[in-house]
Amino acid sequence: MKKLFLISLFLLAPITVLAAPSSSAAQQPKMDIKLFGGASGTTFVSMLETGRERDTFTGWQIGFGPRIRRRAWFAEVLFSFNRWSFAFTDPEVGSFSGRVNSFELPINAGYIPYKNSYFKLFIYAGYVNHFNTKIIAEVAGGPTLKLRPKEVDFAIYQAIARFGANFDLAMFNVDFNYSISLNSATKTSFRTGYHQIQLNLAYLF
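The structure assignment produced for this chain is given below.
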């Protein structure tokens, strides 16, 4: 956990630099507030003794946060609520489905290769603090269960690397990103990789 804290602290450094006041008015940092929502596709890859098994599920996310721009560089810290749905068939339990609730705190920093008065292009990488909070499962013909992550061998905390690109069009922002887990998504004896793509639409204040 200490290592993860140091990584987060390191990634926060660009925000501190960008927010520092400048002697030139033209070089003053500019801040936008992003209010966004979007869809996602999440793939879990289980490394089993019999080989790799992949399961892909759809979901959505909403969030907000500040973005600071200075010259050709930018950084942002966003907060989002995430939900994705799942469906499985187990020989012992039968068919069951449900959803997973989580929240994220991504810290992104990147470069602005092109900008004008109406259009800006952003390329970035980031570190995502991902917290699974609740699993709601529904067994076919049975009750609805509200479970904590540790009750179903889910990792409560996931460290995730994110890479993406987005653009501003007037007061709107369109973002596409790819995420990959740095630790297992489960507490099982085998490793479960986490891969996700997101497409978000944001309004800028």
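Interim note for the steering committee: Helices lie at 2-19. The chain has a mean pLDDT of 87.
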